[in-house]
Write a structure and sequence with these properties.
single chain; alpha/beta; seven-stranded parallel sheet; 15 helices; disordered C terminus
Length: about 475
């Protein structure tokens, strides 16, 4: 099978480190694993090609340098116009069996070419980019961007949207065919991200310094020697709370720091690990200093996607502390990575996260923006190894069964009528040895099962927010 993957948004470096880049690489990886000959058409290849994607053929489309936003929009439309010829050239070398496009603000040529050529196409929509560009950046030709959205969505064989709100937005622009729009959340590579081997089923005991209050109830919590055969007694490292993502306000990092201060008051040995970077880093660390917990907070800075795994293995619980947001329409990659690592997850009950966490069976849900509730949930998990084990086990099951990228890609292609064989190297659920961390500088539509990071972008293109 020969596949063309199109990403004409320069805000999404195909081989970069952004959440959007991780998403692109994951889809490419599944296509390659399935035996496809993959051609990437992009305006921004990004960094070095990962070794397992070395056989992917990259076709770079140039974007003319510009000054103003209006000029930039014109240049991006002109760059998109080149895609037609690139696809024709690829097809001339042996035909094309599938076109897979990541929706971009000014992209119309790819799905139009596929429609004319009789090639099935999948358009992946990660955000309502017209709204996002207008609200969070700058958009001069909004009417033109709307026309592009309607043209791209209308010409696609199938449209997959990462959440219900995004699907509704796309269905309104589907040219009277909302039935071709499907909800399909982001995924995770459950073969690469596996639970740490020494998590002992999630039962990492706490040191004596962690005894204290739980949900306001005073009293010593005695973690003496357990003689049951199923529990492994060990001196555990400090209880570690993990956040992975871009350090920006809409991730609720102020709430997280306040909650962590509450956790430290009752679990003195607790630590907070922030994996990722962003413009909010200084504010987060300043707030930690103000709350008196800066010595227990570690911020790694930006890390390569491949290095996230070792930080997942250093955690006891992972958080997605989103504040109340009117436009929570994304599908957070971080949450699926947490699940795949077999970590207990504490997340805000916003958007589709309650469904993702099975309304409490695969994670703990707290009211968005409520630092006290988040702190209470973390304290309770700190003192309940069995609960952590139960949540972590179910989290892993959910990741493998519903959110592995092989499942996501197969369903996406199926919506377009393209059969897809199971990859040869199917995901495995076995844990890996724990890896020590080091300093390193993230209408009606068909529905399906439902990673952010919200990304910084150029002034005229977005690529979508990734929780």
């Amino acid at each position: 099978m020969r596949v063309a993957y199109v990403s004409s948004d320069p805000g999404v470096p195909v081989f970069g480190r952004k959440g959007s880049s991780v998403h692109v690489q994951a889809v490419l990886r599944e296509l390659v694993r399935g035996g496809a000959e993959v051609h990437v058409v992009t305006t921004r290849p990004g960094g070095d090609t990962p070794a397992d994607l070395a056989d992917v053929v990259v076709h770079e489309v140039a974007v003319a340098p510009t000054g103003s936003t209006a000029e930039r929009e014109v240049a991006l439309r002109e760059a998109d116009a080149q895609v037609d010829g690139v696809l024709a050239g690829i097809a001339a070398g042996g035909g094309l069996d599938l076109l897979y496009e990541r929706y971009s603000l000014w992209g119309t040529a790819a799905t139009a070419w596929a429609s004319d050529a009789g090639v099935p196409s999948v358009l992946e929509v990660n955000a309502p980019l017209v709204v996002e560009q207008r609200t969070h950046r700058e958009l001069v030709d909004e009417a033109g961007a709307e026309r592009c959205a309607r043209a791209a969505i209308g010409a696609a064989t199938a449209v997959v949207a990462v959440s219900g709100p995004v699907a509704a937005w796309a269905a309104d622009r589907a040219g009277g065919h909302p039935e071709k729009v499907h909800v399909l959340s982001n995924g995770v590579d459950t073969g690469r991200i596996v639970p740490a081997a020494d998590r002992c089923g999630g039962r990492r005991d706490l040191t004596d310094s962690s005894r204290g209050r739980v949900h306001g109830r005073q009293g010593a919590l005695h973690f003496g020697r357990d003689t049951s055969a199923r529990r492994v007694r060990q001196v555990a490292p400090a209880f570690t709370v993990l956040f992975v993502g871009t350090l920006k306000p809409w991730h609720g990092l102020d709430v997280l720091v306040d909650a962590f201060a509450g956790l430290r008051a009752r679990v003195p040995g607790a630590r907070l690990l922030l994996v990722g970077d962003g413009p909010g880093r200084g504010d987060v660390l300043a707030l930690a200093h103000e709350r008196g917990v800066e010595g227990a907070v570690r911020a790694t800075g930006a890390v390569r996607p491949a290095d996230v795994v070792r930080h997942l293995h250093d955690a006891d619980v992972a958080v997605a502390p989103y504040p109340p947001l009117d436009d929570f329409y994304f599908s957070p990659l971080k949450v699926y990575e947490y699940l795949a690592a077999g970590l207990p997850v504490v997340a805000s009950a916003v958007g589709e996260l309650p469904d993702t966490l099975e309304h409490g069976d695969a994670g703990v849900l707290v009211p968005p923006g409520d630092a006290d509730a988040l702190a209470d949930a973390l304290v309770a998990l700190a003192h309940d190894a069995d609960r952590r084990a139960t949540l972590g086990a179910r989290a892993r099951e959910v990741a493998v069964e519903r959110h592995d990228w092989s499942v996501v890609v197969r369903r996406a292609l199926g919506f377009a009528g393209v059969p897809w064989a199971e990859p040869v190297d199917t995901p495995v659920a076995e844990p890996t040895n724990r890896v020590s961390t080091g300093s390193t500088n993230e209408t009606r539509v068909s529905t399906g099962s439902t990673s952010e990071d919200r990304v910084s972008t150029s002034s005229t293109t977005g690529g979508g927010r990734h929780g």
